[in-house]
Amino acid sequence: EVQFAETGGGLVQAGESLTLSCAVSGIDVDAYTVGWFRQAPGKEREGVACIASSTGRSYYATSVKGRFTITADGASNTVTLRMNNLKSEDTAVYYCAVDYTYRLSPSASDYLSPRYYRDWGQGTQVTVSS
């Protein structure tokens, strides 16, 4: 059984930074596609960033590209999301998740689609005040 422990959420002001961590047990994070998603009140869950096992590359939503960085550490089995220059629109509950499928796609949005991810963490709240 895969389990997630997400930490690092909180309340910050616009322009500040936060680092979210997701400690994973039950699987090897280097073997699968791992990603971060977020869901704001009244909105659908959206993909933020992921590391695809099929390509070894990182993919980002357009809205966070250049501000967020995802990394995966096989030694600690942890997936980290570094978020810089936070904006009020980044306010949401953030989730880490795992995609067990092996896919090759030319589209970043395909790798970031929630429908492929089967196991999810409980989420951590990020609130950015303007």
How is this structure best summarized?
3% of the residues lie in helices and 47% in strands. It is mainly beta and 130 residues long.
Can you tell me about this structure?
- This protein is 3% helix and 47% strand.
- Strand 4 and strand 5 form a beta hairpin.
- It starts with a strand and ends with a strand.
- The protein is built from 1 helix and 11 strands.
- Strands 2, 4, 5, 6, 9, 10 and 11 form a 7-stranded mixed sheet that branches. Strands 1-3-8-7 form a 4-stranded antiparallel sheet, with no helix packed on it.
- The mean pLDDT is 96.
- The chain is mainly β and 130 residues long.
Task: Identify the notable features of this structure and list them briefly.
7-stranded mixed beta sheet; globular; 11 strands; mainly beta
